[in-house]
TrEMBL record:
Cofactor note: Binds 1 zinc ion per subunit.
Cofactors that this protein relies on: Zn(2+)
Protein name, per record: Guanine deaminase
Function: Catalyzes the hydrolytic deamination of guanine, producing xanthine and ammonia.
Pathway: Purine metabolism; guanine degradation; xanthine from guanine: step 1/1
Gene: guaD
Organism: Roseateles oligotrophus
Gene Ontology MF annotations: guanine deaminase activity
Cited InterPro entries: Amidohydro-rel, Guanine_deaminase, Metal-dep_hydrolase_composite, Metal_Hydrolase, Metallo-dep_hydrolases
Family the UniProt entry places it in: Belongs to the metallo-dependent hydrolases superfamily. ATZ/TRZ family.
Keyword Membrane: no
Span of domain Amidohydrolase-related: 67-427
Amino acid sequence: HNAQRLALRGDLLDFRAAPAWGQLDPGSALRFQPDHWLLIENGRILGTQAEAPDASWQQIDHSGRLILPGFIDTHVHCPQLDVIASYGAELLDWLNTYTFPAECRYADPAVARLGAERFLDALLAHGTTAAVVFATVHKVSADALFEAAQSRGMRLITGKVMMDRNAPAALLDADLAQSERDCVDLISRWHGRGRLSYAVTPRFAPTSTPAQLAMAGALCRADLSLYMQTHVAENRAEVAWVSELFPDARSYLDVYAREGLLHPRAVLAHGVWLDDADRAVLADSGAQIAFSPSSNLFLGSGLFDWVAAKEAGVAVSVASDVGGGTSLSMQRNLLDGYKVQALAGQRLSAWSGLYAATRGAAEALGLADELGHFGAGTLADVCVWDWAIGPVAKARDEVARGLHERVFAWMGLSDDRNLHSAYVAGVQKFSRSNSR
Ligand code: GUN
Ligand code: ZN
């Protein structure tokens, strides 16, 4: 028969379940199979084994390298690669000074297309094989992302941004009817096609009228398979502004709750300034928080309380939030996440961090049957990493005692330079030798 059979040899690391918080002995949640073969047949994972497979398999020997499920970045902005690392502003100034002008350029279909391709290739070059992405307000920017993801075979969740106030005129929907028509048309053409899903995308409460938020909620209610993405309670000035704009809401989160925007397929970025009542509402709804540590530090937004979210039963994934965030590297963001926990007297283990960036995100998105781990039948979104690059990381790797110490040092010292290759549904989409 003509099955495509690919076997990768290396140190396989993935998760069967959520590891216990703070525990360095991961028990059965972790599946570490050093020097094993990962078998991929017709783009799907068939299984793992210690011995080499027979000659019907194409064999690639990465022994001495780390093989992980591709990372899932649950909140990142395609058009904002152009404003990453912009100096000196908190959220609301940063949006007006850098971000909105950059997003205006995506009205041009050529800019949107090139931007989408460059962006997805950049994700792949950082070991991120699936993502939940903000396009811009322009319909063409969402089309461009869906097309570019489709041609790469990537799992992508995105949508056109909805804004109808408090932003430059060039970035506002003309009216409610046009905003809804654009969403409905994009949903009908892309949602559920291959690995693509649509996310209803009101940018954040200040840039939508109550009528637009209500329309977004109605879209979600009409099709429960749709995702929803937005921002919530990121920055103190933003929170104060929302309480002025929505005086009847109990809290910032309540603005979304009242419109039916909180559901199991909702992804809310940040959630730095939530209270216990908000966390209870989130847990009840099944919505997840996309913790964006490098962004929260860079924009001076605040310190997200992961432990409070966890104890309330809220799902938490990890996100780069580029261009507010300063790197697409999930390792860099996990290290920033570790530092945020450290400031609160907490510790983020390598297990909890890597789980959140792989299987945890897949579970929270309802996609764990498709990706995020090496379970049989999932699509083979797989990345091959060098354990250490350069003298400092190499020396550190050599003296590491025990698996957690070694993997934690990898999480702390590695980044996109460590990526050797990335596979999407079993097809190599990035290779270091090709790109250098
Ligand atoms: N809140 C509303 N829009 C944005 C954005 O583009 N980035 C961040 N970090 N927060 C936002
Ligand atoms: Zn964001």
